[in-house]
Amino acid sequence: MNAITSANNKPELTPQIDPPVVPLSISELKIPVVVLENLTLKHLAHQNKVDILRLSELMGISTHIVEELLQSLRKRSLIEVYQPHLGAGTVSKHHILYGLSASGLQDAELAFLNDSYIGPVPVTLEEYNDIVSRQDIRLNNINYENISNALKGVQGAQHMVPILGPALNSGRALLLYGHSGTGKSFVAAQLLNAFDTSVYIPFSVYASGNIIKVFSDLHHKPLDNNSSAKTIHFNQQYDRRWALCERPNVQVGGELTMDMLEVNHSEHNRVWLAPLQMLANNGLLIIDDLGRQKISVDTLLNRWIVPMEYSVDYLVLPSGQQVCIPFVLTLAFSTNLNPMEIGDPAFLRRLGYKVEFSPLLEDEYFDLVQIVCEKNDLEATHEALKYLSFLHSHFKVPFYPCIPKDVVGICKDIIKFEEKERKLTNNVIEASWRLYFTSDGLED
């Protein structure tokens, strides 16, 4: 397996479900009014002076609802109204600016102390659970062609298609094991390309008095600009509290801690952040380098016994309350350790599919070398490839798919520095080889 692909093999995506409809009243939001008012105050504090259209865009709700919230705040003298100077007869309600009064600023500060979230109005936990469940990957059957296309251009991966297809359809956790550099994590990440559907991700979720930020620029890739669309016609948009995205692909390695699996706040402010498994819902969660985390495999397993068995997870909120959310994702563990060394038989039994990754065959390996050379605009002569084969044989190094990218990359750096012809030679390959591998086990 290898992190090189000859072409973009992502399918054209269509939403798996109908889009969430635009709420037209405060009651349809199903969020407590005090939460909506506090969020409005925080936006006003952050923006200083702002009009209704801008507030509507920032909060992801209709101008009618924004206007209703502003009227309530104005009756309590928490906001002030500023008339713009646009000339007689040209001022509309959308041109009027709103800002906080002295008492409004105090209330905004109290709201920030409770939580620092600023963004679109959250969706309810019930609505989140419903939409996540209806966007379950397992509702789409994966066939041979889907998996084959997803792994197209990945050297040596085609023989795994009959294994990975049933694994995805099952919805059970996967264990990908084998030597470091055999492409386990990369192949796992490509599995989402087998699906041709997109999903709706909420910017935040309201659960038992807490706003949990869900949308992440790092893990979620929007497919349209609905949340920032300027149109005020509801038939031209869906609920702007949601973003239409590619299915999430969340990957974490040795840095994984138990805190990352619970609702937690960032270091700099009190914004409650969704845990990794919530970020990955309707997508893929890869736990890389399993067995090398600070937490033990047993501890991790105990945390996820219920989610892996019943597709639900129980989160403890900052308030101490517990809520139930869907655990609807493909969970893949990747390790270069012996599976028997990382967990007991009970753990391995819960991992429905164990997939071993091996080195490439020799012809697959050198096909990959040629591909990498072409991508780097380097000529790979027959003599140079023969010498590379000799180095593998002499030092007893298997044909791991990570090597061509790394070794050819070093060759490119050497050639550029020494201003040589863009061609692989025996000397350049040997120099690159010795820079890439440590001295341990290498003979003169």
Notes on the structure:
The protein has 444 residues and is α/β, with parallel strands linked by helices. The chain has 3 domains: 32-119, Winged helix-like DNA-binding domain superfamily/Winged helix DNA-binding domain (Arc Repressor Mutant, subunit A, Orthogonal Bundle); 126-357, 3-Layer(aba) Sandwich (Rossmann fold); 362-436, Helicase, Ruva Protein, domain 3, CATH 1.10.8. It has helices at residues 26-29, 33-47, 52-59, 63-75, 102-114, 125-134, 144-150, 161-170, 184-190, 276-279, 297-310, 339-342, 345-350, 362-375, 382-394, 402-418, 426-436; strands at 14-15, 50-51, 79-82, 97-100, 123-124, 174-178, 197-202, 204-207, 210-213, 242-245, 249-252, 264-265, 272-273, 284-287, 312-316, 322-326, 330-335, 353-357, 379-380, 423-424. Helix 2 (33-47) crosses helix 4, helix 7 packs across helix 8 (161-170) and helix 16 crosses helix 17. The longest helix has 17 residues, at 402-418. Mean pLDDT is 87; it is low at 1-7. Residues 170-361 form the AAA+ ATPase domain. InterPro entries: AAA+_ATPase, P-loop_NTPase. This is AAA family ATPase.
Write out key terms for the chains shown:
single chain; about 450 residues; alpha/beta; Arc Repressor Mutant, subunit A; Rossmann fold; Helicase, Ruva Protein, domain 3; five-stranded mixed β-sheet; five-stranded parallel β-sheet; 17 helices; 20 strands; disordered N terminus
